[in-house]
Structure formats: C-alpha cells, structure tokens
Design a protein that fits this description.
Number of helices: 15
Oligomer: single chain
Strand content: 15-25%
Helix content: 25-40%
Number of domains: 3
Strand order of the largest sheet: 5-6-9-1-10-11-12-13
Order of helices and strands: EHEEEEEEEEHEEHEEEEHHHHHHHHHHHH
Structural class: alpha+beta
Length: 469
C-alpha cells in the first residue's frame, strides 16, 4: 500500500474535568483517586426521586473561559438536556449533558501549521467507574461500581475532522492541555483522568471528499497511547478495506499491554440517546457583561506567548515551547529575565534543571544564580547544589555561596598543573584527540572535573587544547 492511496481523517472529542471543588449538580466534594469507593455521593448524584440538580457556577465559568480562549461564539441562551442510556455506572439511567444549545460553538485552535476548527465546547456530568474482577480458570466473574465520579463536571471539547495524522492528533491534545493549564480551567492531568482523549478515526481514498466510516477510541489517558492507538487503528482499517471488507461504525478501546484496539460496542447515534430538555434545570441566559469580563481577564495564551518569547528574548522555538508548556515556568523565566538574567542561560537552567524537578525558586534568586555561574564565581555543579538549597530554604544564592565557601578555581597556573596531570594519566585519550577524534576531549575533561570539581571549565578546556597542540 502506498501512503498516497489513503488519507487519514481524525476528529477529536476531549473530556476535561474543570478545576472545581464540588460536582456538577450537587455539593459533593470531588474525590481523590485513592478515596474509598462510594464515599463522595449524595441523593442528587445518585439520582434519587424528588431531588433537584443545581448547576455549578465555577464549572460554567471554566467552560466559558475555555471556549473564549478557543475563539468560540458564546450564545445568549443555553440549556441542559437528558441523554438517556442504561449502564450500571450511571445510576439515574440518564446523563445530564447538552445537545442542541451548547455553551459555545464555532471556534478554532492553531496547532503548528494547521488550524483545527472547534465545533463546540459544552458541559456535562461524568459517570461512575466499573471495576471487574474474575478468575478465568473457574469462570467466576464479579463487577463492582464506584460512584465517586458520578456527577463530576466535564467539559467536552469537540473538533471538526480536521486532523490528518497521529502526530497531529497528539500535538492537538498537548496544545489543549497547555491552554487549559494556562487558563487555570483544569489541571488536565491525564494520569488522574482529568483529560481523556477520544479520537474519531476514518480513512478515505486520497482526493476523495466523502468521509469514511469512523470508529471512536474511548478514554485514552496518555499522549503516547493516543499516538500509538491511532497508528494501529489506521493500519487496521486499511487492512480491512484493502481485503475487501467494510469498516463498522463502533466504539473501540485501547489495550496498552497488547498494543492494539479492540471492539467494545456498536456506536450509538444521537437518536439512540432520546435527548430532551432537562426539566429540572431552566434554560440559562449568559449575561453579555459577564462574558466580556471573562474575555478581558484571559491571560496571554500559549501560542502568543511562545511567539513573543522567541521574538523578545531570542529563544529557540523548542525552548520557548518547553517553557510555555507550564505557565509557572514561563512566569519564572520572565521574572528572572526582568531581574537581569541572560535569557538563553536562564532558559537552559529552567529546561535542564528546574522543569524536571518541578521545584521553583523565585525569579530574583534564579537570576542571581545564573549570574554567579555565568561570571565564573561558582561551577555549574555547585550551581545545582545552590539551586536546590535555595528552593528548600528560600535563601539567596549569594548567601548560600558565602556560607559554604564555594569558589571556582580559575587560577591558570594551578589549572595548568591539573591539565598536565590529566594528559599524562590518559595517554590513549590524548592520542585519540591528537589523531582528530574530538570526542576524546570529553574523557579528559571528565577526569579533570573529578580531580577538581571547582575547576573553571572554560579555562580548563582552553588549557587542555593548548597542551594537546
């Protein structure tokens, strides 16, 4: 099969848990992952007769902020609907969702060179969780239900089928995560189920305008799994069609252990859900002044900030992307730069040392640390130790350096003696370097750092080069 024979078409449904303290229509607290089953439930989220749901304003605000950041239109009126289906993890027998009057419509998100149209961003409630346990040998199976998640608010972000590869789908989901975290609308932690990606995948003959039959992959909880699942599903559909078969519209799951998709159930259509307006919640009128207040309060969005960091601070596109992916890192970078730290060196410290640990110093302390390392007062290794102590204690790098007596060895005569000893002790590496194998310098510098961790690496490197001729 040639790659030119088929075109991949992907639309994304992404479920996001807004950052709220309580559920969508009741006062139950959002349970932690390790909470005892069925301990965060009440009459409302269990769907008992005679109870009345009340919409969560914080969830509505998070949804509207997300929609505005995605350039969506916000209608004046919206409503909730009942989506009827019977599963054990849905005790009411229906889900409160939105159908024909969602909270927003017709937006877009720019991801790299592609503009992905956003069909809608709406609110609904989550279902519970089914837990299956069994013994294949004795064929004894039991199923349990934990309803702590039943009623937890969810935003559903639905795109048009504008994505054309697994790479694009993964990048789209990652850009959404960055946007949501920048807004403060959601923590969007995939491992905790706060962001779940559900790609709708089909293929069609290259040049065709007609969409193929799609399959939906449910509840994928990592970017790597999303990428691999799409690649597998595209190959599976290709093989089905090339062998003369037909793709069936269905919902499929992803098995991480087996690295394959598998059929779960036939895909329902809108008519199967028998939507009708939720009788216990009146339609909502979205005040125009409130919408404009939310719009005015939006922070600088990731795409704009990445571009500005590249232009204003001459950062590489990759460094800007890594920093902007976490708003706290981007704020730290700009605070340190405002305090006089060189931009490139500051970015290196944030990307290489701070981001992996998640422990942030103040911008002023980071700027001071970068200057101490940059002017040769301390080595990079000493700088790492100073950084950790500064984060843990809040003390300034200068205070820590003075207390520990850190100093960088920059005396040329002392370093020359060290460099000569290193060359004498490593004749093979020295010969390799003189023969043109430049990577041999790494072994020589490693030995020098081992002998004198406080050695100024720039001066030491220059001396080794001079002595090696």
């Amino acid at each position: 099969m040639s790659d030119r024979d088929w075109e991949v078409v992907i639309g994304m449904e992404v479920h996001v848990q807004p950052r709220t303290r309580s559920k969508m229509f009741c006062g139950c607290a959002i349970a932690e992952l390790n909470a005892a089953p069925n301990t965060h439930v009440c009459e409302i989220c269990l769907g008992m007769p005679g109870v009345l749901p009340v919409p969560n304003k914080a969830a509505i605000e998070a949804c509207l902020k997300t929609a505005l950041a995605l350039n969506c239109e916000i209608p004046r009126h919206t409503k909730f609907d009942r989506k009827n289906y019977m599963y054990p993890d849905l005790p009411k027998g229906y889900q409160i969702s939105q159908y024909d009057l969602p909270m927003s419509l017709n937006g877009y998100l720019v991801v790299g060179a592609r503009t992905v149209r956003i069909r809608r961003v709406h609110l609904e409630e989550d279902t519970g969780k089914l837990i299956h346990a069994g013994d294949k040998l004795h064929k004894a199976w039991e199923s349990y239900v934990d309803l702590n998640r039943a009623g937890v608010p969810l935003m559903e972000i639905v795109s048009e089928p504008d994505l054309r590869s697994a790479d694009e789908a993964r990048d789209y989901a990652m850009e959404l995560q960055t946007l949501l975290r920048t807004l403060g609308a959601s923590n969007a932690d995939m491992e905790k189920g706060q962001l779940r990606a559900e790609p709708n995948i089909s293929i069609r003959r290259a040049g065709s305008e007609e969409l193929g039959v799609k399959t939906e992959l449910k509840n994928i909880n990592s970017f790597r799994a999303l990428h691999r699942a799409i690649l597998y599903e595209v190959e599976r559909q290709t093989q089905v069609l090339e062998s003369g078969g037909s793709v069936v519209q269905e919902t499929r799951g992803w098995s991480e252990s087996e690295q394959r998709t598998f059929s779960q159930r036939s895909k329902e259509f809108a008519d199967d859900y028998r939507y009708f307006p939720e009788p216990d919640i009146p339609p909502l009128e979205l005040d125009r002044a409130w919408i404009e207040e939310l719009r005015a309060a939006l922070p600088e969005l990731p795409g704009a900030r990445r571009g500005r960091l590249v232009t204003q601070y001459a950062l590489s596109s990759s460094d800007a992307a890594r920093i902007v992916a976490d708003r706290s890192l981007a704020d730290l970078f700009e605070e340190a730069a405002a305090a006089g730290a060189p931009a490139k060196q500051t970015a290196n410290w944030i990307v290489g040392e701070i981001a992996p640990t998640g422990k942030l110093p103040s911008g002023k302390n980071l700027a001071e640390l970068v200057r101490l390392v940059g002017d040769g007062s301390i080595t990079r290794d000493q700088g790492r130790e100073v950084l950790m102590e500064s984060v843990e204690t809040g003390r300034t790098p200068a205070e820590i350096v003075a207390e520990h007596g850190y100093a960088q060895l920059s005396d040329v005569s002392e370093l020359r003696v060290l460099a000569e000893a290193v060359i004498d002790s490593n004749p093979k590496a020295a010969a390799d370097f003189r023969a043109g194998r430049k990577q041999a310098m790494q072994a020589l510098m490693a030995d020098l750092r081992k002998r004198a961790p406080q050695a100024n690496p720039k001066i030491a490197n220059e001396l080794l080069l001079k002595l090696l001729g």
